[in-house]
Specification:
The protein has strands at residues 2-8, 11-13, 17-21, 37-41, 51-52, 56-59, 62-64, 72-73, 84-94, 96-104, 116-123, 170-171, 193-206, 216-223. It is an all-beta fold and 224 residues long. It has one domain (2-223). The strands form four sheets. A five-stranded antiparallel beta sheet has the order 2-1-9-13-11, with no helix packed on it. It has a three-stranded antiparallel beta sheet with strand order 3-4-5, with no helix packed on it. Strands 6-7-8 form a three-stranded antiparallel beta sheet, with no helix packed on it.
Length: 224
């Protein structure tokens, strides 16, 4: 039997999700600025859950990250500091391939969310140290210099740089194994395991006033 579950800083995300806020829960993020805090919350963003690791966009290759003051290269952020841990489990050992992450409008996975810009980076960094370089993304997907930018979706304003729908999809490592330990550089492993873990940094910025509730995350993969 196969299942996908989501975790943030060790907390299970079941019928809820992640919410991006200003300086504290419920505080709005300034237009065209990125979030200062991240919480587990409900679909409306009104129920306060646990505060989790906040990774905030600084520039196309760097971020503000937990436990440090100065922005760092996103490939230096440890898995343990990720915004989100995606975990696939199976009752038998399997390998995974073509794992992909999308940000969508909670209606159709091919439709980009509107009113908010999202940037995503996969972390491949099993060390606990920021001094060590991981082998994950070095540039944010959805940034001006990221793969596929700007997003070609006709649901977005021309020139919008954001992960979204079928326009910009984030590829994830092949067969990372438990704790992502076997991911290596992300593309070559064919090992089979009962658990596969992916770690991502997610950062968001509104481009208009108001809560963004038509906003979701979708993960798909193949296993064999």
């Amino acid at each position: 039997m196969a299942s996908i579950n989501f975790y943030a800083a060790g907390n299970t995300i079941a019928t809820s999700g992640l919410g991006f806020f200003g300086g504290s829960f419920g505080q709005a993020v300034e237009i065209n600025k990125f979030q200062d805090t991240t919480y587990i919350t409900d679909a409306a963003g009104t129920l306060q859950g646990a505060a989790v690791n906040n990774i905030k966009y600084y520039n196309d290759t760097k971020a503000y990250a937990p436990s440090i003051t100065e922005p760092t290269g996103i490939h230096r952020i440890p898995n343990a500091k990720a915004s989100l841990n995606i975990r696939f489990t199976h009752s038998s050992t399997v390998r995974t391939q073509n794992a992909k992450l999308r940000i969508y409008d909670r209606v159709n996975k091919d439709y980009a969310a509107s009113g908010v810009v999202t940037r995503v980076a996969e972390l491949l960094h099993t060390s606990a140290s920021y001094a060590v370089e991981g082998s994950g993304d070095t540039t944010w997907y959805g940034s001006a210099t990221g793969a596929g930018s700007p997003n070609p979706s006709d649901r977005l304003a021309a020139g919008t740089n954001t992960v979204g729908g079928s326009g910009i999809i984030v590829p994830l490592a092949q067969s990372p194994g438990p704790s992502g330990h076997y991911a290596g550089a992300g593309a070559s492993n064919t090992g089979q395991y009962t658990q596969h873990d992916w770690y991502v940094g997610i950062t968001a910025s509104p481009d208009s006033v108001g809560s963004k509730t038509l906003y979701g995350l979708y993960v798909e993969l193949e296993y064999l």
